[in-house]
Write a structure and sequence with these properties.
Two copies of one chain form a homodimer.
Chain A: H1 8-18, H2 35-53, H3 57-63, E1 66-68, E2 73-75, H4 80-89, H5 108-121, H6 123-142, H7 145-157, E3 160-165, E4 181-184, E5 190-200, E6 209-218, E7 229-234, E8 236-238, E9 244-247, E10 250-255, E11 266-279, H8 285-321, H9 345-377, H10 381-416, H11 419-422, H12 428-435, H13 445-456, H14 463-480, H15 486-509, H16 514-549, H17 555-572, H18 576-583, H19 588-591
């Protein structure tokens, strides 16, 4: 029996008291997402997640997707089709999409909260509409007016799905090695030929059509990454009147057998002279693809949080019920044969670690997501700039840190269950298997670290990082100013200093030897994550204190928030120290062995 | 394709130059394990592992064990029976067993090296003889002469297997809750009735008989842990002449579905008035069981190392072959389309982390195992005492730290493979699933930490820990004395000081509030592990330096050892800092939330 209860109180706290969305009602879309509406939307999304998606999570894992080689078709697990129908009919696929194409135009930050619940209760399911939204964004940003009119309404409505086709057998991270060919045709379209692998939702039985976004190389294009273009390849061609036309030459060639996310079809996709349409300019496919990828990367970070939350809830339920041993300070359940294991400090250490991650990650995700909204929606140019800066800086950080920790949370929660956690009687072993992919796809986490250090950091002379350090410093000052939180503020200042020092070290060393940047990158990303978490935890501490001072209801909630904050500042944030050491350790030791000597 | 090459050079280095076994030829059994013999034994074990066990690892995972409800029988995967025959015919099951019962009497430390290879290549297989050896030890230590004569020769030869039956549905960690009943019979035997769960190898088709060691409560016994006795319950009763007699009333009731180790049968065992024979005294079953458990715990720690080694080898092979991107310092494979990913510092960071663990853990395991031999075999009372002290102190540390890190290694190596690592085309996802159980069984790792802090630490006034701190200090001094290793010695001194401080903190706080001990225990265990690893790494550094100074052959090996040592001291050991902070953070924050508030 899997437990899940939508974390609605935490969403309210963050939206109402930390991010204070109601003060942003002048930003387009935010007035439509006022307190009551937000509450109602999140409650409905919670019901859908708890009532429709959760019951299919385990059965989906056991059954998996089935491939029929004769028809090249894929059948999703029992119940997925009906659940997808309910999902789209409820309007969930177009929550934050452009109203011009049938979307509801609500803030993206609200969609993040909704998606946390959807992913938590059914990661595999959530990927189908998730990737469609990525395709929507790429076409919305880079497509022609005609392309937008043809594809976006269907994607927004969820009638058609979208997929991302990047990887080929010889190239994952290094997209410059792509071989899929695009031959220009007289009518302006292209003939696409090649094989793509690991295509999530490449084929399924949920939607009437699938819009594949495909990276390919136009004949005669420059070598490497500068010769890659992006194409729209619909499964069924679309007639001028919008109805479905001929079956296009793209077929699923098989499904990947994998460790987890069994209910999501991971497809080999064969392009056999399929008709494709260029999006944007020739050879500029990577730019368009990055629009999809950045959005997808934040979405993957979200997956880490989501799995951690549901793992936590199930571990807590177990720890409250399982009777083993007695509290070291005397029986707490005298009438029973033993105490519930939640009395043991070491069990609480595990639960509190996960809890502190969940609450901090949720705050950081929504804080970042709000900057994403402001980037596009704010009327103030400076705010838009800062929004873009923060989204660029923090997306790789959230992707990597959240998926690492989300997986770790699932493992920790599995540990709380002891032997039960290793069996299939409980859902957590599936959470561990599902969570593992988050660290890998949409750019393995090491790639995120290189993106941060090699690209994001230096943009605009480090403008984003310096603003971020200043913001963190302000929060630390505010904590230090209150005696009860002074130790937290000191710790945050210390962590901020680690990041500053590591940045200085990079500036002084990476130019002379670029391997130093690579050697430092992962720990640098972790330092950034710790500062970011410290920042949002500081803001939560101050907001919770304020609520208590004002005598707000839900006193127990705010008090619990302060307990979790204490755990974060006392036991989690000190881990930044070791990353500070490693971020400056350099490449020499790592590069000393010859490849043959490993 | 799974790769494995027995790490024979590292075994030689450790046995010959670090532990210097040849200086111990006056200890019984050691003269028979001189350099050449050792080499030959390890080479043969390597061949068995590479040639017989490895090819069955993946197929065993896919096929799993099958249960037939009609006959209560279990079929192990294809090839296991034949492999088991080769294993026992080669004499591997009795390598370090008592020659009085057909064993070879070789040092246990040698058997550890053999077992590393056996487990690495087939974890599930290795558990069958592994548990038999646990049963051997319990009977050897606590059984009557008659029991020894009846059961030991068959266990040593591997003709019969042994199993451990502790857990029941209502009790895992808390064995005081055991309900299985033992009713005394007129002939001195007992009728055993009850249900045991999670019994590894409880039923299988490899051996002619199975000797179940079962914890049960004699009618009228005191409540709780003080009323538990240990029984021998053979699957087939044994006639006076040693032949097999009647089928006993113990039956497998089903197999557990689980995340990994699919080729090892995890059984529900139903005792239906089965005939059992008391081992040792009534109500003293826990003592006898601890003999088995301590041995098993060291064996589980070994599993963490073993899986890490094979994961490493496969990740290295992938990283050498997979071409993606270019080195940040310019192409290293100019003729090819891209460089192998082993040129990237962040890939090396992952590989070096795992490598440093493997080499350190192997050294620490064998160092500890040697103390185990000396505990039983040394002619010097002081040495026997110290051997016992170190085995007691370090067994929980190795069990917990090695299995945590072994799992982490498998995850890290999976990360090196990127998307490939998540698919079943490569073996690493299986390693991750298999490795996960190590952190749970034979006492979850949190229990190991409590064993260390609550039991082992205080024994004999902390004698073991003080000797250990002194030994580590000596190694640190020796490092400091050599300018090239001074930084390593300083770091080890610092880590040693962390452990000393944490010990002092425990002495000052845990008495007033025992929850402080629980809150500190896990990080305290990690501090102990870091000091222990620092100690053996220090010894390896000095031994490698000496070998180089002496101009020994295999120069590249010793140089590589120093590179890995550098990684350990520069990038791994600094992690002790955060454990030093947490070990003194206390219980107040952890215990602040009411159970309902989680």
């Amino acid at each position: 029996m899997t437990i899940y209860k939508a974390p609605l109180a935490d969403f309210s706290f963050l939206f109402d008291r930390v991010l204070r969305l109601d003060a942003l009602s002048n930003v387009p879309g935010f007035a439509e997402a006022s307190g009551d509406t937000r509450g109602a939307i999140l409650e409905e999304a919670g019901k859908l997640s708890e009532g429709v998606l959760l019951p299919l999570n385990e059965s989906g894992d056991r059954e998996g997707c089935r491939y029929d080689a004769k028809t090249h078709s894929v059948t999703t697990p029992k119940g997925f089709k009906e659940a997808y129908r309910q999902f789209t009919e409820g309007g969930w696929s177009g929550l934050a999409s452009d109203p011009d194409y049938g979307g509801q135009g609500l803030p993206a930050v609200l969609a993040l909260a909704v998606n946390e619940m959807v992913v938590a209760t059914n990661w595999s399911f959530a990927m189908y509409p998730g990737l469609s939204h990525g395709a929507y964004s790429a076409i919305h940003t880079h497509g022609s007016e005609e392309q937008k009119a043809t594809y976006l309404p269907k994607l927004v409505a969820g009638e058609w799905s979208g997929t991302m086709n990047l990887t080929e057998p010889q190239c994952g991270t290094d997209l410059g090695l792509i071989r899929t060919k695009a031959e220009p045709q007289k009518d302006g379209s292209y003939r696409i030929t090649g094989t793509k692998i690991w295509i999530s939702g490449g084929e399924q039985d949920l939607t009437a059509n699938a819009i594949h976004l495909v990276l390919a190389r136009i004949s005669g294009a420059p070598e490497g990454i500068k010769g890659i273009s992006l194409f729209i390849v619909p499964k069924f061609l679309v007639n001028a009147d919008g109805t479905l036309g001929a079956r296009n030459g793209v077929f699923c060639g098989g499904l990947e057998e994998k460790m987890g996310i069994h209910a999501n079809a991971t497809c080999v996709m064969n392009y056999e002279g399929a008709t494709g349409y260029l999006i944007g300019e020739p050879h500029k496919g990577m730019r368009a693809m990055f629009t999809m990828m950045n959005e997808a990367r934040l979405g993957v970070g979200l997956q880490g949080l989501a799995i951690s939350e549901i793992a936590y809830q199930n571990a807590v339920a177990f720890a409250r019920e399982r009777l083993q041993g007695r509290s070291l300070t005397g029986p707490k359940n005298e009438g029973g044969p033993a105490d519930p294991i939640i009395v043991h400090p070491d069990v609480r250490r595990m639960l509190m670690d996960v809890r502190a991650f969940n609450e901090g990650a949720r705050a950081l995700l929504l804080w970042t997501g709000l900057w994403g909204d402001l980037e596009y929606r704010s009327s103030d140019a400076k705010t838009r700039e800062k929004g873009g800066d923060y989204m660029a800086l923090l997306t790789p950080v959230l992707k990597a840190y959240f998926t690492d920790q989300g997986f770790q949370s699932a493992v920790t929660c599995q540990q709380v269950l002891g032997g039960s956690g290793f069996t299939k009687h409980f859902p957590i072993e599936q959470f561990v298997r599902d969570a593992r992919i988050g660290m890998i796809y949409e750019g393995a986490n090491g790639i995120q670290a290189l993106d941060l250090v090699g690209r994001k950091l230096a943009q605009n002379g480090g403008r984003a990082l310096f603003a971020f350090l200043a913001d963190a410093g302000e929060v630390a000052d505010a904590l230090v100013a209150r005696p009860e939180f002074k130790a937290y503020g000191d710790r945050l200042h210390e962590t901020r200093k680690f990041l500053e020092d590591a940045t200085k070290w990079l500036m002084e060393n990476a130019l002379a030897n670029p391997d130093h940047a690579g050697a430092s990158s992962y720990d640098y990303l972790y330092l950034t994550a710790y500062v970011a978490l410290g920042l949002v935890w500081g803001r939560m501490v101050l907001a919770a204190r304020k609520a208590l001072d004002e005598g707000a209801g839900e006193k127990a909630f705010f008090e619990a928030k302060l307990v979790t904050a204490r755990h974060f500042f006392e036991r989690v944030l000190p881990a930044a120290q070791v990353h500070a050491v490693r971020a400056k350790a350099g490449a020499d030791g790592l590069m000393a062995l010859a490849a043959e000597a490993f």
